[in-house]
Amino acid sequence: MTGGQVTELVVFLILFGLVTVLGFVAARWKAGDGLNHLDEWALGGRRFGGWVTWFLVGGDLYTAYTFVAVPALVFGSGALGFYALPYTVVLYPIVFLPVLRLWSVSRTNGYVTPADFVKGRYNSPLLALLIAITGIVATMPYIALQLAGLESVLRTIGLNGHGLLGHLPLFVAFVVLAVYTYSSGLRAPALIAFVKDILIYLVIIVAIVYLPAHFGGWSHIFDQAATTLAKKSPTTGKPAGSILLTGTNQLQYATLALGSALALFLYPHSVTGVLASKSRNVIKKNMIALPAYSFVLGLLALLGYVAISAGVKPLVNGATGKPDTNTVVPELFAHTFPSWFAGVAFAAIGIGALVPAAIMSIAAANLWTRNIYKAYLHRGATPAQEARMSKLASLVVKFGAVLFVIVIDPQFSIDLQLIGGVLILQTLPSVAIALYTRWLHAWALIAGWVVGMGWGVYLLYTIPAATGKGHFGGSALALGKLSIIGWHPFGTSTTQIYVGIVALVANLVVAVVVTAILRAVKAPQTPDSTLAADYHAEEGDPLRTPDQALVG
To answer: I need a surface site. Which of 72, 259, 396, 473 has the fewest CB within 10 A?
Structure first.
């Protein structure tokens, strides 16, 4: 470890220690009647106002991995990496009204998870179970992606050991995270998010002003990126990428942006941030203001081109012996900024991993507790027992994610995130559409989920890695590879599309067709535990228990 790396490590540890203290202090911040209830431990008492929700939801959606992976994708493939910009721009108009309805019906009926809502809306234990399992499975790799971002920083600082020893610093960091999350619940990441965002904004302002001037200006940076990306890869014999979209990836870009926008607020951790808000008005203001983060994301994405111009090479992962593209931005900072400021930048990325990882683990634990443990293993569980189980489950989820990152190759981690999006998109008919209509039949939704999930996973399996071998090598499928019972409607087309959209369309078609058939034969519909007024309830309106009303 060099002298500069020692300085970086000291600054990193000081700031990491600060947020650790805040994590434990958070147990007494905005405290209600104690943390022995899911409303308090997992949702902060549903009392977060505008500023807290801004930092919490922003810290939840704009993760450390976003700050590491998006520039890394731009570094490796060029323009395609900018899909994150239109995705986060169209996201908020799409979800503005649905999340308001979800907040109202969840507050009125005491729902904590999306599967709670599905259970109340359709009174179908099987459908609710499928939604819960999907949420947990899709969230696990997302948590692991935060670890990949944190590990990229630790490796750059010099903590890049071999084998399992190389993961030891990460394990220590997440032991600390696990302890204060267990103690403080959602209040811990909500409070730490203030520090995380302040550091991120500081670093990106300095980076976007200083780095272009240091490397010859934006015109030179773009020219050099275009030249470098146009060179043929020795592995594939094709150019690595382009600063402009090509004929084969324009559809992929558009469908990836749309699919990601539809998927983001279906994730249980996104729902957790929304349900913690104290009123519909708070959510409205945040949906209007949160796109400001997209501006920052665009600036961060440009750092991928800056790294090309700077001649940055990905650091070799000591644990796997392979180059880790996640280290591109940390390496750029380490070789350009003074050591003390590089330490600040690394702390911003590292702390940025802790906030979403904590929220995600809480959300996944709630799904296990409310929709599996209480629904099938201990139906008479008290609120205190629910809270205790969720705390324990959050520990299991965190350490499961640590094991997950140990066995995967971080080089493909952005594809894992997009694969998770394919899975969570299959809950859209049961969660998002159900907020507006009960026309779709519960059994039709189950059939649609089975087809969408099965076909989506199969298509993902058929996609090889960049080497042309293996499976689950990404989420982009050539239209020529798309077959329907042996029929290839697009011939041999090499134009690519996001698998998530293909699977979702299949899901919706099956759900609509099966519903029409069931309605034609007058199949009975399950009762609805929610009322029309529940979807418009405001702060201060009376609460209901799910058994107060059943309407067919």
So the answer is: 396
